[in-house]
Structures are given as structure tokens and as C-alpha cells.
Amino acid sequence: MSTKPESHPHVVLWGVAKPPNAPSSSGFCQKLEVFLRFSGISYEVGETVPMKAPKGKVPFADIKHDGRTVTVADSHFIILYLIEKGLIKDPDTVAGLTPAQKGESRAWQAYIEEALYPAIVRDRWYIDENYAVTSEEIFGSMAWPIRPMISWFFRRRVMQSIWNIGAGRHSQEEAQTLQKEAFEALEARMSSRLYFHDSEQPTRIDLIVYGFLANTLATSGNPYWANMVFRSPTLLAFTKRMTSLLFPEYESLLRRIEEAEVLN
């Protein structure tokens, strides 16, 4: 019988191409990396495209543990798998959240992921001037004959996806109303506290909120949302604190936050 020690768990996070020392252009890929970084589990980021993913969307993950590799799709279910298999600790359990607090977190998660973020993504891809910026940020390093074709293909794909879930059926004014409502609610909830539940350490919802804030503040493709957040000392302080704690290499994001702090 082999006495070789079992290797430590390792996660390969498969997502869209990620710029160096900056958040992912996908909010859900960024959310998952936040959890991985916070948990301390060994991980690496791999580049793929949604068409190659098990559910036709990113992220998905190859999770290596106990002598096997398991592929899990969807950021929510990847995190649940890691917690349920004991590969990472549950931040909510560590913080001692009550069932009611956990329920509140889940409701906020749904609000952010299913109402707010699609409205923001709509702004990036439906508004021509925002799309021009988004395209340059994501595809700018590609060779010219390929770049416009790839950019057009992904714009068409994202717009269809946003239309299918309903956010694309809103007018620009309606989509930005959804963003403003979410901003006001989130700012009020986070006011005068370090973390969402006024705990001493981040919980799941803090990691989720931070992941989407980092994603949306690192790009110039969603100015309506970003400008509101950059004028909020509460949300800036939270984002700066979490970035410094988890991703100090995000120097460009930290500079953006510090520049905004000077103007407030």
C-alpha cells in the first residue's frame, strides 16, 4: 500500500482571458476567484471560451482532490462543491451567521447577480460608445483582421443572452434605473460598517459584492454604474479594503479608487 501523502486540493478556474494584475472582464469569473483567493486553496486561472464550457458559459472549474479531478460548472455550484467537500471553509459558518442572515445574503446575491449585473452588462454591450471601450479592453491585443470579427461575434452572443434573460428588453433609462436602485440599496446597507452583516470578517455576500465591484470598477465600459460608485465613500472604502486584503496586485484598480477618493 502506498504511503505517498495525498496531494493538496487544486482548482483550475476556467474563464475568459484575464488581463494581468487586474480583475476579470467576467463578473462571475471574478467572483469565483475572490472566493478561491480568500479561502487560501491552491488554484490557477485558465483561459477558455464559453462555447467550450459544460453549460455554455464561464466559469467552470476542474477541481483536483482525493486522487481525482471533478469538473463543476457555474460559480455558485463550484463554491458549494468546495464547501460541501470540505475543501474550503464556509465564510458564513466561520462568521457565525444565523439562518436568517444566511437567507438575507442569498436574497442579496440573487439581486446582484440576476438584476443588477445584467443591467450593467447591457450598458457595456448595447450602448455603442460603451461597446467600443469594452471591445478595446477585451480584444484590443488581437491582430486586426481577427479582432473585429471576434468582437462582433461576442457582442452578438452577449446581446442575445442579455435579451433572453430580460435585461435586453429594457430601455437604457430603465436599465439604469435598476442600477441606481441597487446602488442606493447597497450603499445604505454597507454604510457605517466594515462588512455586510457587521461581522468581524467577510462572509459569502461580502465576497460576492466585492467580486462584482472589482469587475465593474476596473473597466471604463460601464460609466453610469462606475460613476455612482466612485462618488460613494462607503463603497470605495469597502472595495479598497478588500482589494488590499486579497488582490494587492490590482494596482490600477487601487489607483482609480484613490483618485476618486481625492475628488470626494
Q: Which terms would index this structure?
A:
Glutathione S-transferase Yfyf (Class Pi), Chain A, domain 2; 9% strand; Glutaredoxin; 4 strands; disordered N terminus
Number of domains: 2
Low-confidence stretches: 1-5
- Beginning-to-end CA distance, first to last residue: 65 Å
* CATH level 1 class label of the largest domain: Mainly Alpha
Q: Average pLDDT, to the nearest integer?
A: 96
Task: State the strand order across the main sheet.
Answer: 2-1-3-4
Brief rundown of the structure:
The chain has 264 residues and is α+β, with helices and mostly antiparallel strands. Helices cover 58% and strands 9% of the residues. It is globular and about 45 Å long.
Would you give an account of this structure?
Helix 1 (27-39) packs across helix 8, helix 4 (99-126) packs across helix 6 and helix 10 (233-246) runs antiparallel to helix 11 (251-263). The chain is globular. It has 264 residues and is α+β, with helices and mostly antiparallel strands. The protein has a four-stranded mixed β-sheet, with helices on one face. It has helices at 27-39, 75-84, 91-94, 99-126, 128-139, 147-165, 172-190, 204-217, 223-230, 233-246, 251-263; strands spanning 10-15, 42-47, 60-65, 68-73.
